[in-house]
Amino acid sequence: MGRQALVAVSACLVMTAAMAVFGMRPAHASVPRRMDSASRPILLIHGNDISGSAYDCNETWHAARTAIEDSGWTGQLAMAGLYKGSKNCTYDYGGDKASSITDLGRAAAWNIYHQFSKRGEPIDVITHSMGGLVIRAAIAGVAEHLPNWPPYLYVEDVATLGAPHQGAAKAIGVCGVYSTQCGEMAKGSRFLKTLPRNPQSAMGTDWTLIGSVADTVVDYTSEIDEGHNEWAHKVDYPNYVSFSHSDLRLVTTGTYGLLSENGTSRLEPINFGASPVVVAKNALYWSSKW
Q1: What is the CATH number of the domain that holds 99?
Q2: Does 18 map to a domain?
Q3: What angle do CA 95, 194, 26 make, to 5 degrees?
Q4: Could you give the 3-state DSSP secondary structure of residue 207?
Q5: pLDDT (tens digit, 9 = 90+) per residue, 144-187?
Q6: Is 290 within the bounds of a domain?
Q7: Which range of residues forms the domain containing residue 151?
């Protein structure tokens, strides 16, 4: 699996170089139709490691994968490893602590393009923590037609769990000295100031931002990008629910009070809402309204 992933990433780099030298732009396939579906492939993208150390994707995503599979989801559940040497990941993006989030986003974009989009196959994405910025950068870079990026992507739905959309002041401390990604996640960083909100793939992308008031790593106002109404859906778990940063990707059962916003500027209370992972999965099922 690791060898296949490295080959896939190497192929991405070769294609990038060819496009740069010869000005190649692959023909745009017919845009897939948006639809409610439990058969789309899902790409799971984990968060930051300050030292850029390898992740074990099975360990990180075991609870979520099990819950999604047990719910009857039939699409492939693929896992991206952001750092080189990651274990049990479907794809290895080969990053380290010096890689920028844009670098990781470009790797994700080429991965999605080669494995899915160029074949006309849409995918859905679930991310945790910094992974939300990685997919945001991936879709934004393609939408802006940046040089050496894929010509298009088909990403139908994205659900971000605990993503620092406005930065992560509580988590950063001095780690920006040691990690490029940490510096970019600091509130007010140049990266965050220039990163587009609600970026759209060629088929449109329905975003759901999920956060927790009790998260002590990333502030909930950042997780739901408070004050910015460009996003389609937002879900916020109140303080009394006590979901930690890790809980957002680990809790898969039970009912909880939550606040939900669907295309409005006001969060509405729901007394018996689903767990974070189930909310994310449900958000991927519905192509727009839910």
Answers
A1: 3.40.50.1820
A2: no
A3: 65
A4: strand
A5: 999 999 999 999 999 999 999 999 976 565 576 678 999 999 99
A6: no
A7: 2-9+40-285
Task: Give the pair of three-digit tokens for residue 272.
Answer: 């018996």
Nearest to 124 by CA among 257, 35, 30: 35
For residues 208 and 260, the answer to whether their CB atoms sit within 8 Å is no
Strands laid side by side in the 91-95 sheet: 91-95, 77-83, 42-45, 123-128, 155-161, 206-212, 233-237, 255-262, 268-274
Stretch 16-39: mean pLDDT, rounded? 67
Q: How many domains is the chain partitioned into structurally?
A: 1
Smallest CA-to-CA distance from 57 within 33, 85, 27, 25 is with: 85
> Looking at the domain assignment, is residue 32 inside a domain?
no
**Does position 4 have pLDDT exceeding 70, yes or no?**
no
Residues in the chain: 290
Is there a domain that residue 140 lies in?
A: yes
At position 212, the amino acid (one-letter code) is: S
Helix 2-22 and helix 101-115: axis angle, to 10°? Answer: 100
Token pair, residue 289, equals 């309204």
Which one-letter amino acid corresponds to residue 77?
A: L
Q: Each residue of 117-128: pLDDT tens digit?
A: 999 999 999 999
Q: How far from chain centre, in Å, is Cα 52?
A: 18
Predicted model pTM: 0.89
pLDDT in tens, 219-260: 999 999 999 999 999 999 999 999 999 999 999 999 999 999
Q: Is 11 helix (H, G, I), strand (E, B) or coil?
A: helix
Specify the pLDDT at position 216.
93
Q: Can you spell out the DSSP letters for 231-287?
A: SSEEEEE-GGG---TTHHHH--SSEEEEEEEESSSS-EEEEEEEPHHHHHHHHHHSS
Q: Are 125 and 136 in contact (CB under 8 A)?
A: no
DSSP-based three-state secondary structure for 127: strand
